[in-house]
Amino acid sequence: MKFKVFSELSYEVYMPSTFIFNIEGAKTVNQTILEEALTIEPQFKLEAFNSQNGTRFLRLEVDNPINFKINYTAIVETNYIIINERPLRGEAIISKLDAEVIPYLFPSRYCQSDKLQRLATKEFGGIMDDYAKVVAIADWIFNNVEYLSGSTNSSTSALDTISERAGVCRDFAHLGIALCRALSIPARYFTGYAFKLNPPDFHACFEAYIGGKWLFFDATRLIPINGLVKIANGRDAADAAVASIFGSTFCNYINVGCQAIDDDFKPYNYWDNKEGGLCYG
Amino acid sequence: MKFKVFSELSYEVYMPSTFIFNIEGAKTVNQTILEEALTIEPQFKLEAFNSQNGTRFLRLEVDNPINFKINYTAIVETNYIIINERPLRGEAIISKLDAEVIPYLFPSRYCQSDKLQRLATKEFGGIMDDYAKVVAIADWIFNNVEYLSGSTNSSTSALDTISERAGVCRDFAHLGIALCRALSIPARYFTGYAFKLNPPDFHACFEAYIGGKWLFFDATRLIPINGLVKIANGRDAADAAVASIFGSTFCNYINVGCQAIDDDFKPYNYWDNKEGGLCYG
Amino acid sequence: MKFKVFSELSYEVYMPSTFIFNIEGAKTVNQTILEEALTIEPQFKLEAFNSQNGTRFLRLEVDNPINFKINYTAIVETNYIIINERPLRGEAIISKLDAEVIPYLFPSRYCQSDKLQRLATKEFGGIMDDYAKVVAIADWIFNNVEYLSGSTNSSTSALDTISERAGVCRDFAHLGIALCRALSIPARYFTGYAFKLNPPDFHACFEAYIGGKWLFFDATRLIPINGLVKIANGRDAADAAVASIFGSTFCNYINVGCQAIDDDFKPYNYWDNKEGGLCYG
Amino acid sequence: MKFKVFSELSYEVYMPSTFIFNIEGAKTVNQTILEEALTIEPQFKLEAFNSQNGTRFLRLEVDNPINFKINYTAIVETNYIIINERPLRGEAIISKLDAEVIPYLFPSRYCQSDKLQRLATKEFGGIMDDYAKVVAIADWIFNNVEYLSGSTNSSTSALDTISERAGVCRDFAHLGIALCRALSIPARYFTGYAFKLNPPDFHACFEAYIGGKWLFFDATRLIPINGLVKIANGRDAADAAVASIFGSTFCNYINVGCQAIDDDFKPYNYWDNKEGGLCYG
User: Fold this and answer.
1) Which of A115-124, C38-47, C240-249, D77-86 has the highest mean pLDDT?
2) Which residue of A has its CA nearest to D103?
């Protein structure tokens, strides 16, 4: 699939500040950036660096009080795999996990899986295979947590959401991750551009490591899950925020979009196809 | 029913300290203290005072580092009512509540009902009458929270228990209260001596205000609910702790007991008799 | 002192709902309501009831989806006492407290004093007399917590504020109360109309029980502390909210005011007069 | 310096479980393992893997209920540097940080730096250079938090410690890390064997990234800071627990030791030498 994505963010900066942005499409085996352009007005020196998993960070230092705008556009080709097979039938074998997957078993800032083990085991522990467990987790969140714009803030965590039962995509993702890890299933945060998201915005979802692959889940069910362009992965939003800001600034404008370039986009949702999981690789 | 109850507590006191004890049987319309004795070794001046709802407090000031023991025994006659009738069929009408019941609608230290409204409404909101709602709450707690000695401490609250899913009688009571209040049903904490509690200890349960009466619930199901001698009511354990201590002390011994004096004690449990609620008055 | 106060609140009601309002001036020994008027449009039956400490509640039941407005105006005469004397020099003697003051020693929903004992003892424990301790608490809050409109919400508690260090008048009051109780000084929440508060709004402060009297403190220092008309006291905002609402509604308008009628208002602030505490009785 | 270190841990395993241990001395440029031996009784297959920063993990799968013991001994040579120089005089320049240091700026499970920014800025923001800031943080923790065995548990975080003001080495380290990150100074968790720690145990401290180096801090002041053998670094204890256990087990024995082999160990403490920071490399 090919998508055209863009984001525009505008900031007022009150004192010398550093920004770390995650807005560029990730470069992975399954996702290719065909074209892209990044502009800043006024011009600043940007520094780019990558994490191991393909996430691309932009670092920008602003020395003086100023207003600036950052603008990203890209055409991205994504390939996903639908996995119908046996591997999804098993259970996580921690002793077989690659070393780099291990950290995704541990609790993190917004995903206090250590506190949710009894709840997760009670609700989902009896389900036999890992893929079915994570589908059940995502279904449970969809059915029990209300999607409510403005109900949470940047310090809201999975532990808040499990009791307060309202949140936005970020909170749905954090709770999904926390419940997976509470069952010893590695899980990570996923941010991206999302086709058909209404109103348009950055989107947050999660991936669970099942049968040696990162399977994709979206407990909000707001979009077809095959319409995403990955920006970043991380343990949770602390690692993969759209903008991590060190200083004093105010974001006064944000505009995000994602369009399918091909005509033949066929929505795919795991909740209609319980046998087949989707993997962005 | 007649019960013989006793409690012995022993403290090491390291600096001038004040104790407020709730260990005496409450004097209410439905509970009569037939005999009682209170001793302290060495002797201290005790001051007694009562709250409006019949709870009896003992205040004791210790000026010097010392070890002391407090000992209470009583024979208490309790009368409870089984309510099978129509009043239980309705829903709480806040506009009809007496003024003194209103505070039991509000959140308190260990019962953050304000944060559990969505969860409570989702799980129990569809149940028609209030008594059935509270039975469902107590059943849900019994089925979803593990009774686990030592798993919690004096700062554990309903908000912790709803996510961590383990606790002791106090935590079961707090969660019951919080879920009731989240549905606009007044609820209060109840402490007492409990017949057949094993191991013997002070017990904590809760009462919900339904059809103009305080109905009794015990989500732990550890005891027959008609075997209690009430010590205190309060909004939660902050109001009705066995001992509130201001100073520096250590409790090095505690021994509690409750025996039925009559031979004909017939256990009653609302969970076996869903039509009939029990009220201590 | 005489003040003219008013408040107007307007609500959209979506389903049958019950409101409990605290907007009327309290009737106490030291505060007299000279005139008052309460109107509701459209007309509803209101029920009034009082708590023991003079707080006046209004209960209003709305059966149908509707918009309504409640309007209160009053002329109130207040008398306060400035206490310069010896009683303020001592320390709280719990064994001498009246029974009705005891509950104000215990932790409550927004004032988790049980968790702040070490902090309070470290910061303020070495100060000799209770009045000086509470002045130090209010000064510390003023100096260490940022007054920031919109930084908190209705579930923010003293435990949040002690770490996050920002809040509004309600949060300043809760933290003051929690720190007092952590030192075994009874403390309670105070809401009222406040002269010279800018922008005009309901105001929240706290009172500490020292030398047998409730002394008044305002850690925000936003107003002269002798310009208040008391509405309610309570353990914290859970007891004394302007509006406790059971149902589904939205407040779409609020307007509050307080003017001195006498010409000779002389602002008094304990922080300029460390020897003299103010008591509304 | 040369140290002989050992640890013995014994577990009861109730169901198939996986263990990830961090008990081996790290292999870094500045730390050499001269000898080491690892034994398990009964014998199990262990799998070893390393993180990028030299931390060595041991993964062990236990299929059946069993009791087992793991035993590690090593002779380790450590080299540390004392840094007296100019680099410590500057402030963190986020725009110059290496990509792999960036994650240590972000909040993590036990270090909610996002919630402590106002507090950290108020207390330490006015101090000019980063090294002096972190020394002030460690001093503040030493002076304001009580070291109290058994006061906390595995879910205690920096946010708890900032209000409750008691904890063990792990809590002191988490609070140090959180306060550094709140000031945009990268900080990480450090676990190791500690010479002269009494009673002997694993020890937890923290490192802050200053002038391009990881400087070592121990807010507990329980040991000379040049007597450590590093086991692991991580964002916090979630990454670097002595044992992360997936399953149902009970640790019934733990014994840890660290002895200096050289006779000439001269204790070094940054709090006596405020000009010189210590770096383990």
Assistant:
1) A115-124
2) A239
Cβ proximity of D21 and D245 under 8 Å: no
Name the residue facing D238 among A20, A49, A106 (closest C-beta). A106
C-alpha A249: how far from its chain's center? 24
DSSP string, C68-87: EEEEEEEEEEE--EEE-SGG
Tokens, residue B251 = 């409790």
Q: Within an 8 Å CB–CB cutoff, is residue C115 touching chain D?
A: yes
Q: Which two tokens stand for residue C186?
A: 């009874």
Is residue C222 within 8 angstroms of chain B, CB to CB?
A: no
Residues shown for chain B: 281
Answering whether pTM is above 0.90, one says yes
Q: Which two tokens stand for residue C63?
A: 């059966």
Chain C residue numbers with beta carbons less than 8 Å from the beta carbon of D116 are 163-164
D51-88 confidence digits (pLDDT tens): 777 789 998 888 889 999 999 999 999 999 998 876 66
Quote the minimal CA–CA distance from C151 to chain D in Å. 12
Band the pLDDT of D275: cuts 50, 70, 90.
low
Q: What is the DSSP string of chain C?
A: -EEEEEEEEEEEE-SSEEEEE--SPP-BTTEEEEEEEEEEES---EEEEE-TTS-EEEEEEE-SSEEEEEEEEEEEEE--EEE-SGGGGS---GGGS-GGGGGGGS-BTTB-GGGSHHHHHHHHTT-SSHHHHHHHHHHHHHHHSEE-TTS--TT--HHHHHHH-EE-HHHHHHHHHHHHHHTT--EEEEEEEETT-SS--EEEEEEEEETTEEEEE-TT--S-TT-EEEEEEESSTTTS-SEEEES-EEEEEEEEEEEE-SS------GGG-TT-EEE--
Quick check: A95 and D18 CB within 8 A? yes
Q: Looking at this protein, which amino acid is placed at residue B146?
A: E
The owner of tokens 């590695």 is: A186
Cβ-contact B175, B160 below 8 angstroms? no
CB pairs under 8 A between C and D: 34
**Encoded tokens for B261:** 């004096």
Count Cβ neighbours within 10 Å for each residue of A156-177 and write b for 16 or more, e otherwise.
Answer: bbbbbbbbbbbbbbbbbbbbbb
Largest Cα span, chain C: 57
Q: Quote the CA–CA distance of B87 and B94 in Å, as a whole number.
A: 15
Q: How far is CA D109 from CA A103, A237, B236, D175, in A?
A: 12, 12, 30, 12
Q: Which residues of D touch C164 (CB under 8 A)?
A: 115-116, 118-119
CB contact under 8 A, A50 and D99: yes
* Mean pLDDT of all residues belonging to chain D: 92
β-pair type (B31-41, B66-78)? antiparallel
Q: Does C20 touch chain D (CB under 8 A)?
A: no
Which of A95, A184, A185 to mutate: most D Cβ within 10 Å? A95
Strand C228-234 with C243-246, pairing = unpaired
Where b means 16+ CB within 10 Å and e means fewer, C59-89 reads: bbbbeeeeebebbbebbbbbebeebeeeebe
Whole-number pLDDT of residue C89: 67
In chain D, whose CA is at the least distance from the CA of A114? D155
Q: Does B46 touch chain C (CB under 8 A)?
A: no
Residues 6+ apart with CB under 8 A from D24: D33, D36, D38, D56, D58, D72, D74, D231
Contact C112 B51 (CB under 8 A): no
C129 at the B interface (CB within 8 A)? no
